[in-house]
Structures
1.
Amino acid sequence: MSWLSRLFGRSGTGAPAPVAVIHEGFEIVPTPIREGAVFRVAAEIRKEVDGEMRAHRMIRADTCPTEKAASDLAVRKARMLIDQMGEGILS
């Protein structure tokens, strides 16, 4: 499966693939983690630097009752992190 179909299409499990958000040149892909009846807020923050794709895995202590709520919160938290740290997040 191509990365574009994973980005905009469906995952191999038939579930909707996470929707990437672009912020300040970074790609944010929410990746909520199911923990029993709640979802932990998590995302992967990526950016191409000098021809190399670099990434940071963000996992927060926050939990949400739904996957959508966790994804939305992950994007908000990732945007704040990018605004605060810029490319330093990829170090």
2.
Amino acid sequence: MSNIEVRIADWHKDNTDLRRIRERVFIDEQGVSPEQEWDSLDASAIHFLAIEDGYAMGTARLLPDGNIGRVSVLKEWRGLKVGEALMHAAIATAEQRGLNQQTLTAQVHAARFYERLGFKTISDEFIEAGIPHVDMLRVSE
């Protein structure tokens, strides 16, 4: 990982990359149904792409209410701080838009990752798409 760039993506122009990453991570690997993965919120979200040498390997989205979601990194790129770069971009964009509280629904196994970025668990564990999750909140200082 030498030249990772995170940029705001265009839902229409970058749709192929956004869909490829999310389909591979959520639908293929985790067994989430396409009906659960694709929702009407994508059209109004700010999407982010992590790219190295022209290849997109990670994505996330920020909703108008400050909710960050669909954070996904292709398996071969995990552990290289791609997810962290995506989250920093999403948090910074939220703060620039005056969204000083960011929320997310984290898979339980990833909660520690989000805690390192300042998120705190605010719910009991629950099942979503067959996977244990918790709701988390981050308040900007």
3.
Amino acid sequence: MPDLRPSARLADEDLTTWSALATVLEWLPPALDAQLQQDAGLTHFEYGVLYALAAAPDRTLRMSVLAGYANSSLSRLSRAATRLEQKGWLRRTPDPTDGRYTLAVLTDLGVGAVDRATPGHVRTVRRLVLDALTGPQRRQLQEISRRILRAVRDEEGWQPPTAAGPGPAA
């Protein structure tokens, strides 16, 4: 039976803060999916896979690394990779340095798909998240997000390429 003593429950400002974040976590993913599905025939997860590959050296990552970036099981990633392969946007190949691993490679068609999907996605991210915040609030959100990520997991998640490095614009 759950412990419902006052110390075991969130209340007041803690409850208000948590409920706002929990609602964002529930509402934002379907909004991102809807725009990407409508404009590019992609889920947000698939876009993230393509985007990470576009930013990677030689547009190539091990499937296990890509799964880590996406916080995904290999089976979920494999299903998405199959859909992307069917569109000609991705190909999988054995890792020539260690055949136990599989590489995901973004094709030229996949680069085009990312390039076409990115402007609408950027507009949606700006409209739903960034434009609603001031500059200082954006920096606070970045720091808050990093702190939560570190509390969830010790490892780093996907990091955007440096301004001088390769990678798409979003």
